[in-house]
Amino acid sequence: MPEAHAHPRTQQFPPPLAAEKAAIILATIGLLGYSGIYLYYLWRATRDHRRLPYAQFRLTFLYLRMHARHGTFIMGFMLITIAIVQLIEIDSCWTYIALQFGSVPTQVAFTMLVVIFAILLKPRKRDLGHTLEDWSHEVAWTEEERDEVLADRARQLASSTEFEESEFLPLPGLPTLHMPEVTGQLLSLVAVDEAEQHVPRVAMLCFETMIKLFYFCRLAYRVGTDVPISVEHGLSLFPGMVGQEVVEEVLTDTRAFLAWGPGTLVVSFRGTATRKNIITDIKIWKVAHQPRRRNKLGRTLLVHLGFYRAWRHNGFSERLLARVSELAGPGGEAEGPDGPPRVLFTGHSLGGALAVLAAGDLARAAPALAPRLSVYTFGAPRVGNGPFVQEFLTLVPDCWAMVNDQDPVPRIPKGWFHNAGNPVLLNPRGDLIIRPSEFDVISINTSGGVAAHHMLGAYALSTYAVMKEQFGEDKGLPGGDAGVVTLASHFDVMETLTLSVVENKVQDSSASAAVLTTPPSQAEVQRGGKKGVAVATREVPKVEADALERQVDAKEGSAAGSGSLTDVELGLELQPSTSPQPGP
Fold first, then answer.
1. What is the pLDDT of residue 102?
2. Mind giving me the DSSP string for 515-555?
3. In whole angstroms, how far apart are CA 142 and each of 75, 210, 482?
4. CB 397, CB 430: distance < 8 Å
5. At the N or C end, where does the chain have fewer CB atoms within 10 A?
6. What DSSP letter does each residue of 171-228 carry, written as one string?
7. Which residues are CB-contacts of 187 (< 8 A; sequence separation ≥ 6)?
8. Cα–Cα separations (whole angstroms), residue 293 to 174, 302, 308
């Protein structure tokens, strides 16, 4: 056969030159060295950030965790590619091609990563929308502070020159209260006090309300059982609260505990406690929410079949809502001096899902009560699809879904289910993250979930850790120390959290260093505690500053025999405290 017709595979390609081989080796060594330095500083930054408050360093946390997720993947993929290339014969055709063109995809990948980071983190011009967004991430430590801040925000919005017709529309995902139907009303108003009634009020998380409703979640589990609990303490959390009642449905074993007094009505649903409740949980297919309806895009509002049947079965929803309307209506026992009472729905796990369904139905059935509705759930699963959640948040914007660290229940059911409520993430390291973004959630969920984090006792410990960190050097929020001191002067925080023994009873070793120190002095409170932020101008009485310390000392010194928190509920082994009983 003539040489001109030789098979193409017999053709020889010039091997890389010696200089090219040396350059390749040096580049590989440099890349390995850079990778080592990159991973070292990534580990060091991750370690340092564990001592910082997530809320104040949100962008750096996000930047760091995006590097941890994507940067390490790109770096590892590139190193594996180089290693594979080196295993192939250096004089072969494929090695030659890889060495000549293989760096291009790597450079493109790194360039795209830098561009994405630059776009996400670039500065933006601040406007009213950014102000509303910032407000939605703040926390009020007491109910008085919440009312004062919301009133002040209404005055600021009413006097803002940025208010245009478009600003009255709710921002995507932003909780707002009292949205006016006629946006042009503001233009004809002159007095700021008069204009306050026609501007949106941004919903605000209240730490005091959250702790109080946590105790009512305990009551929903324990009332009517042999497990001891003080119903009187729960009633004492709200002024004048004396009435109580249990509404049950035997066929589905659904229970709601009601408590009321002038100006306040609390409805707490029990979570999964029996075999019937488990059957309710596993019916994860969807059913149309009644009355059947669609949103503007033609999508039907769908909800979890098990939760919805537990709520509606055998007229349970009608009986409960009728009782709530009777108590909260004109002349009812819960009616306040200024009109309808504040109606608070709460629940843990399955109880949280039922609280969402109940609050939504009440807001539709009794529009006069809708502005007074608030919902706080603990570890609640996903209830419905996107259209249902959007309608629910429009009706009940003051809804907060507490999620403890790696609690897996709020992540299920999968598929087209969505979480109802504004998420609030807390953990035993003392972080409090209000309304995290999708990037935050993705970066924070570092595991498939830890079942122990779903226990109510775990929520109590994380709540306690958040309070302790307000007196620390690193994670305290502006005004947090003064807020916790004031909160502790209102009621017995430790008894409300049902934590009888707290010293060294944390969920993981990372939280063991978060020891509650002595509350700040009066001078520290006035200048912002140890953080140098002006957070309070009033003089804090010494008796108020010492309130929290006395509560903790009393609880740590008491014997574990009080039994306010059982090992089963906490999910941990608690050892009795050996501290002596403090003096008077």
1. 57
2. ---PPPPHHHHHTTGGGT-----SPPPHHHHTHHHHHHHHH
3. 48, 10, 11
4. no
5. C
6. PTT--EES--S-GGGGGG---HHHHGGGS-EE--EEHHHHHHHHHHHHHHHHTTSSS-
7. none
8. 24, 9, 16
How many CA atoms are closer than 13 Å to the CA of 68, on its beta-carbon side? 21
Query: Which tens digit of pLDDT belongs to each residue from 232-288?
Result: 999 999 999 999 999 999 999 999 999 999 999 999 999 999 999 999 999 989 999
CA pair distance 155, 576, nearest whole angstrom: 51
Q: Which of 548, 533, 517, 429 is nearest to 479 (CA)?
A: 533
User: What does the mean pLDDT of the chain come to?
Assistant: 75
Return the pLDDT at 319. 97
**Terminal alpha carbon distance of the chain:** 111
Q: d(Cα 35, Cα 444) in Å, to the nearest integer?
A: 24
Q: What is the pLDDT of residues 220-248, one digit of tens each?
A: 998 877 777 889 999 999 999 999 999 99
For 15-55, how does the pLDDT look when each residue is reduced to its tens digit (9 = 90+)?
Answer: 556 776 777 678 778 878 888 888 898 888 888 887 777 76
Q: Which residues pair with 139 in a beta bridge?
A: 205
> Rounded distance, CA 111 to CA 117, Å?
10
User: What string of DSSP letters covers 339-383?
Assistant: BSPEEEEEEETHHHHHHHHHHHHHHHH-GGGGGGEEEEEES----
Three-state secondary-structure class, residue 304: strand
DSSP letter at 436? -
In the block, residue with structure tokens 């978060």:
514
String of b and e for 261-290 (b: at least 16 CB within 10 Å)? bbbbbbbbbbbbbeebbeebbebbebbebe
Is 30 strand, coil or helix?
helix
